[in-house]
């Protein structure tokens, strides 16, 4: 089975699709209204994440009349949702129009009334079990958690989670976010728990917290948010991050230093991220146009260029619109064969347990 089929089959998102849904506004009407608004405010979109730099430039090139106001590129999913809450009555530049958050944050934000629905023109090619039926949130891309390793500082590259507890990795291992707020870090804890044999959800969260407690007690955990710069500087020689982030950092650093991205032998956790529009968006039409762009073939290929599997991947491959060089640039399928895609309930249970237990169990204040 190919990597593409393996991931989608494992996710359980290759099944029946809903019928096309007509939008209340035509794309031409959305575009005209968005141009009149003139601005789109995004949040938490680092340019190296999923090639967001290229995606944003593609949007601006297509719609030069619309400027993009980028807020806090290093924010976590919880910070994005809080930014909507904090700016309900604010129509200024600090109020985000759109968010890109971890899967567990979509339904909770919707339940709180923080999201407004919009069904993009390609709605029927977004698999049914990664979107809200009414269009409040929808999956955008996915990847797996991996080890991103500075080979100039780490002589023996770790191949599995248990390796990270070895004395040779003292003061070396970091998460790519604060596990009390960052979806990437929250799922990093869950992945560690899965590697011990725990079931996805609260059980894996408990096992993962205990794993990080062991790592912290051993002096191996570094309470610094890992990114390309901290890896290059040697502050965090090993970072637990999404495979696509690691691969983008590798390209960005271009051998200075040399990075290796390792999909662990166990605890291979795949994660889907979501797009949504704020219910209080100051520029709601620009937000809709942004979504239309992201879910077009052009936008989806922009993410794929950044090593992220876009949610419409299967549809695009079937229609022959994915360049072969992009397919060839993806990591080999073998590392993904054991990928686990948790359900929304499992993700929510894990997130609640990790956020509640990190300080008391692990006790490492990540900054």
Q: How many helix segments?
A: 14
Fraction in beta strands: 5-15%
The second-level CATH architecture of the largest domain is: 3-Layer(aba) Sandwich
Largest sheet: 8 strands, mixed
Order of helices and strands: HHEHEHEHEEEHHHEHEEHHEHHH
Distance separating the two termini: 41 Å
CATH topology of the largest domain: D-Maltodextrin-Binding Protein, domain 2
If you average the pLDDT, what whole number results?
A: 91
Q: What overall geometry do the principal axes of the alpha carbons give?
A: globular
What does this structure look like?
It holds the Pfam family SBP_bac_6. One of its GO terms (molecular function) is thiamine binding. Keywords: Signal. The structure is a single chain. The chain folds into 2 domains: 3-142 and 271-336, Periplasmic binding protein-like II (D-Maltodextrin-Binding Protein, domain 2, 3-Layer(aba) Sandwich); 143-267 and 340-359, D-Maltodextrin-Binding Protein, domain 2, CATH 3.40.190.10. The protein is globular and about 60 Å long. It has 367 residues and is α+β, with helices and mostly antiparallel strands. The longest helix is centred in the C-terminal third of the chain and has 19 residues, at 344-362. Strands 3, 4, 5, 6, 7, 8, 9 and 10 form an 8-stranded mixed β-sheet that branches. A two-stranded parallel sheet has the order 1-2. Mean pLDDT is 91; it is low at 1-23. The chain has helices spanning 3-11, 27-37, 52-62, 77-86, 103-111, 183-195, 202-217, 228-233, 243-253, 284-294, 297-305, 313-318, 324-329, 344-362; strands spanning 39-43, 67-71, 98-102, 115-116, 138-150, 173-175, 238-242, 259-262, 270-278, 309-310.
């Amino acid at each position: 089975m190919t990597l593409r089929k393996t991931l989608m089959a494992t996710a359980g998102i290759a099944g029946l699709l809903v019928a096309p849904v007509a939008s209340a506004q035509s794309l031409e009407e959305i575009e005209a209204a968005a141009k009149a608004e003139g601005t789109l405010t995004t949040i938490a979109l680092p340019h190296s994440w999923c090639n967001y730099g290229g995606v944003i430039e593609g949007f601006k090139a297509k719609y030069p009349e619309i400027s993009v106001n980028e807020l806090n590129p290093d924010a976590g999913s919880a910070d994005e949702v809080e930014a909507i809450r904090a700016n309900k009555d604010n129509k200024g530049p600090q109020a985000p129009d759109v968010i890109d958050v971890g899967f567990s944050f979509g339904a909770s934000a919707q339940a709180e009334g923080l999201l407004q629905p919009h069904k993009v023109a390609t709605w029927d090619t977004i698999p049914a079990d990664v979107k809200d039926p009414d269009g409040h949130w929808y999956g955008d891309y996915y990847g797996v958690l991996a080890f991103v390793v500075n080979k100039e500082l780490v002589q023996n590259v770790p191949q599995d989670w248990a390796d990270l507890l070895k004395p040779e990795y003292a003061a070396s291992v970091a998460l790519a976010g604060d596990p009390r707020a960052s979806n990437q870090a929250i799922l990093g804890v869950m992945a560690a728990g899965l590697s011990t044999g725990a079931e996805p959800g609260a059980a894996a969260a408990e096992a993962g917290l205990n794993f990080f407690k062991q790592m912290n007690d051993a002096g191996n955990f570094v309470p610094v948010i890992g990114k390309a710069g901290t890896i290059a500087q040697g502050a965090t020689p090993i970072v637990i991050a999404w495979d696509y982030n690691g691969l983008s950092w590798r390209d960005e650093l271009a051998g200075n230093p040399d990075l290796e991205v390792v999909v662990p032998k166990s605890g291979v956790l795949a994660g889907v991220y979501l797009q949504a529009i704020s219910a209080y968006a100051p520029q709601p039409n620009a937000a809709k146009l942004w979504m239309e762009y992201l879910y077009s073939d052009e936008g989806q290929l922009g993410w794929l260029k950044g090593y992220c599997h876009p949610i419409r991947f299967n549809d695009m491959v079937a229609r022959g619109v994915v360049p072969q060089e992009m397919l060839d640039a993806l990591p080999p399928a073998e590392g993904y064969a054991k990928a686990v895609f948790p359900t929304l309930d499992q993700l929510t249970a894990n997130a609640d347990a990790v956020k509640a237990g990190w300080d008391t169990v692990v006790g490492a204040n990540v900054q």
